[in-house]
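Title: Prediction job returns without error message
Component: structure pipeline
Severity: low
Priority: P3
Assignee: unassigned

Description:
Job completed but the reporter wants confirmation the result is attached to the right record. Sequence as submitted:
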Amino acid sequence: MPLADLELESISGLPVAHLFGEIDRSNAAELGDRVASAIGDQSGGLVVDLSELAFLDSTGIRMLFGLAAQLNQRHQKLRVVVPDGSHLGEILDTVGLQQAAATDHTVGEAVAALTRTG
């Protein structure tokens, strides 16, 4: 069984990447590439759902910053879903992810924010 898994779907025309398990240096680059390949030119952005993620190390954090930078270059936005009270939310706040990408507590909130701002 892989350390992490990825499920991609489209909600209201936006790509949503659900990440499961653990992201570390052994799989962050490959997962980042798979998520990046889901981003279309016509999309207003990307939602990355970390709701079911158990662990994220510094390479996973760099992956999120890299996705945000890639999207920014394309005039698109990244929104990261972290459940309220999650330890991952505290970590992402500490590293300043909010400077690169907004966070939401649910996929629905993230999708609504991207479809509102397009």
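Comment from assignee: result matches the submitted record. The longest helix spans residues 58-73.
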